[in-house]
Design goal:
Layout lengths: L1 H14 L2 H20 L4 H10 L8 H10 L6 H5 L4 H12 L6 H8 L10 H12 L9 H8 L3 H18 L6 H21 L1
C-alpha cells in the first residue's frame, strides 16, 4: 500500500496547487488519526483522504463539462452550487483514473462536501478531517469542533453541518438539499443523545 500512497502523492503534487496539496496531505493524516481513534482501517482512511480533492484543480464549468462527458448525472442543486461537484467527479476519477475499486473509499470522496444522512464511518472520517485539518483556521467554532472530533464523531458531523449551513445562509449562498437532509438527520441524532443524558 505504501507504494500506491507514494505514487498518488507524486501525481497529486503535480496537479494540485501547493496550498491544495498541503491541505490534501493534512486531510489524509487527520483521516488516519481518526481511523486509529475509531478502529477503522488506516489504509482506506489514508487513501480516501489523499484522493478527496483529486478533482479540485478543475474549475466549476470544466467539471460540469467533464461530468456531462462521462454521463454523470447532475442535479439542479449541484448546478446551482457547482463548488460541491469536485466531490462527485473526484469519486469518478478515483475509480476510473486511479483504479480504486473500494466502494467505501469512493463513497467517502463522493460525499465529503455535502455529507448525507446516515454516513458510513469512513464517510464521516473524511467529512470531518476535511473541516478540522490544521491548515484550516477561519471557520467559527473550529476549536470546539476539533475538540469533539475524537470523542463523538456524530456530534462533530452535526456541528460541522450546522456551522457550514449557518455560514452559507448568512452569505446568501445556495445550500444543496442533500446537506439540508444530512443536517436534519444528524440534528435528530444530536437531540436523541441530549434526551438520553437528561
Amino acid at each position: 500500500m505504501i507504494d500506491v500512497i507514494m505514487e498518488l502523492r507524486n501525481d497529486l503534487k503535480e496537479k494540485l496547487s501547493p496550498l491544495r496539496y498541503e491541505h490534501t496531505l493534512s486531510v489524509s493524516f487527520i483521516c488516519t488519526a481518526l481511523a486509529m481513534c475509531y478502529s477503522f482501517n488506516l489504509d482506506q482512511a489514508e487513501l480516501a483522504g489523499l484522493l478527496h480533492d483529486c478533482a479540485k484543480h478543475y474549475g466549476n464549468e470544466e467539471i460540469i463539462k467533464k461530468c456531462r462527458k462521462q454521463d454523470i448525472l447532475l442535479t439542479d442543486d449541484e448546478l446551482k452550487a457547482p463548488v460541491v461537484l469536485h466531490a462527485k467527479y473526484g469519486a469518478w476519477l478515483a475509480e476510473h483514473k486511479y483504479n480504486i475499486t473500494d466502494q467505501e473509499v469512493i463513497n467517502a470522496i463522493r460525499w465529503h462536501t455535502t455529507g448525507r444522512p446516515d454516513m458510513s464511518l469512513l464517510e464521516k472520517i473524511v467529512f470531518t478531517a476535511d473541516f478540522i485539518e490544521p491548515r484550516r483556521e477561519r471557520a467559527p467554532d473550529l476549536l470546539h469542533i476539533r475538540s469533539i472530533a475524537f470523542t463523538d464523531l456524530d456530534e462533530c458531523v452535526y456541528q460541522i453541518l450546522k456551522n457550514t449551513l449557518e455560514y452559507l445562509e448568512s452569505k446568501g449562498k445556495f445550500v444543496d438539499s442533500v446537506s439540508n437532509q444530512a443536517y436534519a438527520y444528524y440534528k435528530q441524532v444530536h437531540n436523541e443523545k441530549k434526551g438520553e443524558t437528561r
